[in-house]
Design brief:
Helix content: 25-40%
Number of strands: 11
Distance between the termini: 40 Å
Number of domains: 2
CATH topology of the largest domain: Rossmann fold
CATH architecture of the largest domain: 3-Layer(aba) Sandwich
């Protein structure tokens, strides 16, 4: 590839101490070039998620070759990655693994429900709070802070923060998008295609307050917004997860790189257990792994159920307990369907 290399994300589970791999990414296609400014610096040394050190640093994500390939495709094409798979296959964790390995700073997470809207993902405007402050100022006149003070009442959402002008791609996890209202995938198209959006409350006062600083979703330094528009400098790395509960419109799908995560096989399941719980549990874990794989053939089970079963049995004293089967059964219950 011109001016870059393909294998940016390696699935190694840790950053490359000798190479800034995201810096070796090839230039974007001409139709995916964005010029938002000024470019703010991403804190590359910040944890990728609150309390996530265990899941992202101590325990490397087990990515297979297909996952590595498609992550790199999404990185180079500057396109969202739509990840579909059963619960427990590592869909959400993939976002944190990429952020950790490429040192892309804290992951922004947008958990989707049937009530999620495009606006809630982009920004929130506290109109009531601003009115209350205006009333307070009227009752006690004093020097005001001008129209730009509206920025204190605007907070960018996870998507809105990811689309700000950062010097490196922010990582955004849009979790369980198949639980959204039927219109949300289509509503996302314009923001994801153009890499920008408008905040009408700021657009209306752009002539008297051309630049307003607003709060980002992750509580970092305020983000400058010029003329009421937010435009990215580097398109974010977006992971959208789906449990396969619904179909998406073709216009949405063709703008995504699609990854279907298969259930991990015996080798990967064993590696996952060993990575999470260490060598000491493996002797007792082997029969549980076989039990788990056999049960999974008959119904839906998630890998984290196996981890819980191994941990619980280890905590309770091992396979010799008389109530061993009862303890395992508490955790390895078949799921009624994708969650």
């Amino acid at each position: 590839m011109p001016e870059g290399e393909f294998q940016i994300y390696r699935g190694a589970g840790h950053p490359d101490p000798a190479v800034d791999r995201i810096g070796r990414r090839a230039a974007p296609p001409p139709w995916r070039v964005f010029d938002g400014a000024p470019a703010m610096r991403v804190d590359r040394d910040a944890p990728v998620g609150r309390g996530m050190g265990y899941r992202t640093s101590a325990v490397p994500y087990r990515a297979d070759a297909d996952t590595v390939r498609l992550v790199n495709v999404a990185l180079h094409l500057r396109r969202p990655l739509l990840v579909t798979g059963y619960p427990g296959t590592g869909k959400s964790t993939l976002a944190y693994a990429v952020a950790h390995e490429l040192r892309l700073g804290p992951v922004l997470r947008w958990p989707i429900t049937s009530r999620s809207s495009l606006t809630s993902g982009l920004y929130n405007y506290d109109a009531v709070g601003r009115i209350e402050e205006g009333n307070a100022r009227a009752a006690a006149p004093g020097p005001g802070d001008g129209p730009a003070g509206i920025g204190r009442f605007i907070r960018l959402g996870p998507l809105g923060t990811a689309l700000a002008a950062w010097d490196l791609p922010r990582v955004l996890l849009i979790d369980e998008i198949d639980k959204s209202d039927i219109d949300l995938p289509n509503e996302l198209l314009d923001a994801l295609e153009e890499g920008e959006y408008e905040i009408p409350e700021l657009r209306r006062i752009a002539d008297i307050a051309p630049s307003v600083r607003v709060r980002p979703a992750d509580g970092g330094d305020p983000v400058p917004v010029g003329d009421g528009r937010v435009r990215c400098h580097e398109f974010p790395f977006i992971v959208m997860t789906s449990n396969g509960e619904r179909d998406f419109p073709p216009a949405f799908l063709r703008r995504c790189v699609q990854l279907d995560l298969a259930q991990p096989d015996r080798r990967r399941v064993t590696a996952i257990v060993q990575a999470h719980l260490g060598d000491d549990v493996m002797a007792a874990a082997t029969p549980l792994i076989e039990d788990f794989l056999a049960r999974r053939e008959l119904g839906a089970l998630a890998t984290d159920q196996l981890l819980n079963a191994v941990y619980l049995l280890h905590l309770a004293g091992g396979a010799g307990r008389a109530d061993r089967d009862e303890l395992v059964e508490v955790v390895l219950r078949e799921l009624s369907g994708p969650e």
